[in-house]
């Protein structure tokens, strides 16, 4: 695929990503910027496809939402290495919903959803994936519909899969799963081992439904492109458990997923998860670290001790929610081209100036 309607430089960008993955010399770090075509008339909240994305997806309002995607594409410039994409997600806990947990919404906040736990105990539970499960079937059908809509214009993104122990905590309830770790750790290990086996067939089915090929490549909500299989790997539940429990119950699933994928980013979410950073960085197959500092904390790009630790372990970095001027500050500190800066700006000239500055520094 040489170009996309909304990213004519697609071929050149994929070459830069290939060089990035292969640790080949680049003239600057990667930069991702989405800037309004007309800064005086940016895409409104109502017209942005992230608005009500789960609500419309689960209710089959796909045609209406694709119109939203079209308005966003028409009114956005994708600068640097930015590639337009959209993912067919039904919600953060959709992986657990694939196994029967019902998706729920709040009347006062339709922007997100969650699942109701269905397990009162792990004893005797044998996870199985029903091909007729409405959420599992719906996500695949939505992916296929998006693939047709996207053809030649943008990419379908890999789904946000809160798998492994995140899915178990949603099915069981986080505090109950914490008690299980103390009361019946062998049962936790048995069920988590069984759950891990579903990651590959789920990813593979979504890969096919989304129309992914070596020409389209894959990209995810962590905005990295690769010609093979890419996804974000994570375990937000890890903030609630000890290092020993992380090693026994979480790390095997993380390693399995990272090994299956061709490239991946680890989403380390919040100060409570920071205790596990050495174990995360020990997984050779993890390519990129994304640190999320959490609510009430200083911005993630100011945690230079964490970012430098990731670089020292051979991981690239995803640095987001950062202005061009802030990029200059952190880049002067990190002095690395193994970063993707996801820049917040509404000014194309400001972004182009940053690209030139990064080449010089």
Description:
The chain is an alpha/beta fold and 361 residues long. The protein has a single domain, classed as TIM Barrel, CATH 3.20.20. It is 42% helix and 17% strand. It is built from 14 helices and 13 strands. The strands form 4 sheets. A 7-stranded mixed beta sheet has the order 2-1-13-12-11-10-9. It has a two-stranded parallel sheet with strand order 3-6. The chain has a two-stranded antiparallel ribbon with strand order 4-5. Strand 11, helix 12 (304-312) and strand 12 (316-322) form a beta-alpha-beta unit. It is globular and about 60 Å long. The model has no long low-confidence stretch (mean pLDDT 96).
In the CATH scheme, the class would be Alpha Beta
Q: How many helical stretches?
A: 14
Number of strands: 13
**Span between N and C termini?**
32 Å
How much of the sequence lies in strands comes to 15-25%
* CATH architectural label: Alpha-Beta Barrel
Q: Rg, please?
A: 20 Å
Helix content: 40-55%
Largest sheet: 7 strands, mixed
Q: Which outline best applies? A: globular
Total domain count: 1
The CATH topology is given as: TIM Barrel
Walk across the major sheet and give the strand order.
2-1-13-12-11-10-9
Mean pLDDT: 96
Order of helices and strands: HEHHEEHEEHEHHHHEEEHEHEHEHEH
Uncertain spans, ≥5 residues at pLDDT below 50?
none
Structural class: alpha/beta
